[in-house]
Amino acid sequence: MEYNEIKNMLEETKLPVAYWLFDEENPPTAPYIIFSLPDSSNFAADGGVYHKANRLVIELFTPGKSPELEELLENKLDENGLVYSRKEYYIEDEKLFQEVYELEV
């Protein structure tokens, strides 16, 4: 899955979406999604890259626990055949819940 496909899929949630971060001068209020492709774990064969495997990290930020938005995002991932793991955090300073989805694309 390429960058534009990922961005389009996430925008289907109708939430604000940004790669790495939003403009500091005009950040949205939560809920919103940030995604990144921070690294890869490619498979090599015959002296070259045989299969590219990029790690995709999707972060859903909400002002309160939101099973509905989590389900919305997870349904988008499921519809696209993506296997993910999820971790949940609470950011005390910002009073936000953060759902972190990690997957390989």
Would you give an account of this structure?
This protein has 105 residues and is an alpha+beta fold. It is built from two helices and seven strands; from the N terminus they run H-E-E-E-E-E-H-E-E. The strands form two sheets. A five-stranded mixed sheet has the order 1-2-5-7-6, covered by helices on one side. Strands 3-4 form a two-stranded antiparallel ribbon. A hairpin with a 4-residue loop joins strand 6 and strand 7. The protein is elongated. The termini are close together. 11% of the residues are buried. The mean pLDDT is 95.
Counted by DSSP, the helix tally is: 2
State the strand order across the main sheet: 1-2-5-7-6
Low-confidence stretches: none
Q: What's the total number of strands?
A: 7
The residue-averaged pLDDT reads 95
Helix vs. strand class: alpha+beta
Assign an overall shape: elongated
Distance between the termini: 5 Å
Strand/helix succession: HEEEEEHEE
| Helix-residue proportion | 10-25%
Largest sheet data: 5 strands, mixed
